[in-house]
Recover the amino acids of this structure.
């Protein structure tokens, strides 16, 4: 749609095409080289090194559904959340399954702080489903995309970016980025809390 056109993203020529098709074409045009075909690759196809979770509905990045990440947790696939929820941009956490807090940990921690959280979340999600298009500021979404890309590239280069076990948020109009830790929850089946409980004695 015309609202999907953005600087550095999908151009006006993409209007009317399927989003996935247009995004795939943009990635192929932007890639420095041709990706190897599965038939040309030697040995089994490698697993995903990182999944960037950037849902169209920013609520799914701000309060991700643990069920959506279950396969990544089970396969040990690192994943990074990023998105925009109206006037708030979110990058992180970068989840390292079994080592850092996951979506299930975040949900359990919020329920510990506010027992009404599940009811509020159901109301927000149902309201977002009825909405045809989520509100999203172009400058904010561009800033979120840039920060998420930088963190993803840092991780792929072998570094742990600042979003590891942490969430970065910025809100309009000031766009001041604030970081908050995301800690493993002892009751979460992801088992990220287990290593911290087995600390090496000093």
């Amino acid at each position: 749609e015309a609202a999907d056109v953005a600087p550095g993203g999908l151009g006006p020529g993409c209007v009317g095409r399927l989003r996935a098709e247009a995004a795939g074409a943009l990635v192929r045009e932007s890639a420095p080289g041709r990706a190897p075909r599965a038939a040309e690759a030697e040995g089994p196809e490698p697993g995903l090194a990182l999944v960037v979770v950037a849902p169209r509905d920013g609520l799914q990045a701000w309060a991700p559904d643990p069920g959506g990440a279950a396969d990544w947790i089970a396969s040990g696939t690192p994943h990074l959340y990023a998105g925009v929820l109206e006037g708030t941009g979110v990058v992180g956490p970068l989840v390292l399954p079994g080592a850092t807090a996951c979506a299930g940990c975040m949900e359990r921690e919020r329920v510990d702080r506010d027992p009404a959280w599940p009811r509020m979340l159901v109301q927000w999600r149902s309201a977002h489903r009825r909405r045809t298009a989520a509100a999203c500021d172009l400058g904010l979404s561009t800033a979120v995309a840039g920060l998420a890309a930088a963190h993803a590239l840092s991780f792929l280069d072998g570094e742990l970016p600042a979003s590891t076990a942490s969430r970065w948020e910025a809100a309009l109009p000031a766009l001041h980025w604030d970081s908050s830790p995301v800690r493993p929850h002892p009751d979460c089946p992801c088992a990220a809390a287990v290593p911290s409980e087995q600390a090496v004695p000093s």
